[in-house]
Amino acid sequence: MSLLEQPGPKIDPQILTMLSGSLDQLSQLWEQTEPGSNSTLLEASQDALLPLERACETVQLNGVRMLLEGLGQNLGFMRQRSGSLSASEHSHFARCLEALQAHLADLGDKEKRDTLVDMISTPDLPVHADPQQSAFITGLLALAGIQSPEDMEHPQATSEDVELSIADDIDPQLLEMLYDELPTLVDEFQQHLQSVLDARELDALLSAQRAAHTIKGLANMAGIKGLAKLTHCMEDVLEILTEAKTLPGPQMAEDLTEATDCLAQMSESISASEPGPDNAMDVLQCMMDWFYRLKTEGLDCVSQPLSGKPRREPRRTAPAQPDAKATRQAPAQGGHEQSQLRVPVSLLDNLFRIAGESSTLNAQQDDRLKQMHRLARANRERQRILQKVMFDIEQQLQDYFTLSPSQDSDDSDFDPLEMDRYHSMHTTLSQLQEAVADVREVGREMAEQLRHLSEMHAAQSNLQKESLDNVLSTRQVPVHSLSSRMQRIMRQACQAAGKEARLVIEGEDVLVDSQVLGQLADPLMHIIRNAVDHGLEDPERRAASGKDETGTLTIRFRQAENQVQVSCSDDGGGINVQRVREIAERKGLVQPGRELSDTEAQRLILIPGFSTRDEISQLSGRGIGMDVVYQQVTRLQGTISIHSELGKGTSFELALPASSLLIHTLLVRSAGKRIYALSSHTIEQSLLSADGTLEHTETGMIFITEEGEYPAYALETLVGEKPADYTEQPLFPVLMIKLDQGEKAAVLVPEVLAHRQQVFKSMGEHLPDIPGVPGVTILADGDVAPIIDLQGRIRQRHSALSPVLELAEPEFNLHLPEVLVVDDSLSARKTLATLLRDSGYEVRTAIDGLDALDKIRQEAPAIVLTDLEMPRMSGMELAAILSNSKQFRNIPVVMITSRSTSKHRGEAEAAGVSAYLTKPWTESQVLDQVQKLLF
């Protein structure tokens, strides 16, 4: 049976209102945009039409769906075609949107229907309908009608409607928001509904409906069908009651209470990764029944029981059983399922602290055990000496009695070897020999006990190491948790710059400390925007130079030598060193005529305030970008190197410690007898002074080896001690340090003690950052030793660019535009805040209008993005207060809400709202509005 032979769909008027509101927003976007638009408008329009097309397919509005599909094909054709839109194409497409909106406002109006078909059939559209297609679409449009109570079908719940499985491709940040926010939202919903049912408060109906809407949105983002379906049905029922200002009757109140309990059980099941309640399908069907009765019978059924429905006894949650459909499966060793348990970050931080203290104590115990072994060896040596002394005394005594004459005349009658006389001289010596033998036996027993203690300590050390590894693994997350953010930033940057590029991410399975990865996120976002804005050329220029019109940015992650190494390479135009030098001289960042190598000139882009753009845009021109990358990487005790070739591209090489808890160090002792823990991530090699020659020059010391000449620095000079004279020492260690851009330096140290893996301890937020001194560690003897990053110390004191950096710091006071996001939904706040932060803005958040006013009075933001419906103070009231304030009236306000009617738009305009966006919003819509209002 063809579509024209099937009965036409009957559409709910509310669905038509939603579709019309979304089209109205898109129409306004085309009206506000001048002809000659680039691909940004076309791509944003395609993104806006896709959800409308899916919605029409869901409600079987086939004629409108085909129209939307055709408009989408036109947009795709326009994007692929080189050049911009002509004025006639721009105007005609905008009229097509208006005609479609007019048809949705009145499906039965034949004149509006014919006008719409005529608009899509003219050659003004690159892809237009032929006469046969026009007739077919006209017939489909004529079949659709407005839904009446008689047309409404009675919905039936299925087992798929109550599934609680979480989408496999969910963003880890969104999953964390789900676990954090869902219990709070469900509790809030229960409280509001309790106020309706117990206290009979009509005002609480709207609050309960809004809470259900928020839970539904969060569930839809996480792909939890069962939670979204139940809250959607409850929202429908509450919406009808709210609009009619009617309280539920006894049975409806009881059914709503049971549904709320079921919702709470679903929340607990999701948090515990357990199956949902076994009465979920019955509860969902009950809510569907109530909604059907309200739509078909009207409000009279509110106080009546559900006919033909026996009273149900509330059922308990089924015992937890493994269910592949109801839980998120996690791979485990041996192929077995692994249960999940969420713990607060504060508890993990405490575990890290305990693991670090345990590791330190274990090192101290190891040192004490070594000292006991040393004392035991010394004791055995003393016993051997004592035994030898005893043997000598005995031999001397025997010689004395044998060779010496009698000292007493009375003794002439006795034999010199008479027993009583012999015994009296040797008794004490024999007792002493027995005592020595006892001491030797005790020594052997003590050595045996020390051997057992050493074995126990070795076993305990292995367990402690395994425990530490497991504690560290709790913070290990795969790199692909950032992939979606990086791809999104890439898309946004390309849209803003009008360029075409792809992002290739390699090594997504590499595991990184979550704290390190979290702090690495902002630098990566800046590098992506910088690559699109400054590195990759326009498609025309790439084609002219023989390159693919679509640029490529490749980010590679790998782990080696206890480091996370990140390479960000693009195939763009590279860094124009000559232009960088000219801009640096013009801005006073370097002295005119100063000679800089290409390597040093490339690193000028890391200076605060440096930008090659003369105009400010969403992506560039504010002088804030690569300096943020440099500062953050330095703060993480990492290094950054730049390799660029004009016309071929640029590569940024980042190297960071793999863990934020442990650090590999080289313990050394200075000339002042102070022990330092040198971070080994930049120590390439350890030599002896005999492996080269140390010479003094006018610019300082140099160390000459067969490989080359390297600037040399005494350890004491870098750590602030009195300089030592190494020329007087015949032999001493020399450490070869890796600097940026592949350069090296030599550091002279008096004594190397050991190579150790130490527990890293930061110096706290109350102490200022000391370049090259990230923190401290506790040694085996309990002393505290500072951790020294030699590269950072050398860069701070003797870098060729240090005068440039010192000049730049006081001259520039730069900051990112600050955006205030106001929404009572935690997920909405976090999602919007993450989008704006990733796009280069500073973001603060507020939970409602009153909270926003307090923060605005403390520090006025550049722009405010607010929800409409919020407790205590709505977004409309907030906008009105700001527009009537002399101090804050110039702050633009963007309203983001699910309300799309012309009434709400009019109220927002009267309240002083600068822009009005409806949910679901697209990233490009939000960023374009912010860009338009700020710049």
TrEMBL record:
InterPro entries: Bact_Chemotaxis_CheA, CheA-like_dim, CheW-like_dom_sf, CheW-lke_dom, CheY-like_superfamily, HATPase_C_sf, HATPase_dom, His_kinase_dom. The modification 4-aspartylphosphate is found at D867. Keywords: Kinase, Phosphoprotein, Transferase, Two-component regulatory system. The keyword Phosphoprotein applies. SMART domains: H-kinase_dim, HATPase_c, HPT, REC. This is histidine kinase. It comes from Marinobacterium alkalitolerans. The keyword Phosphoprotein applies.
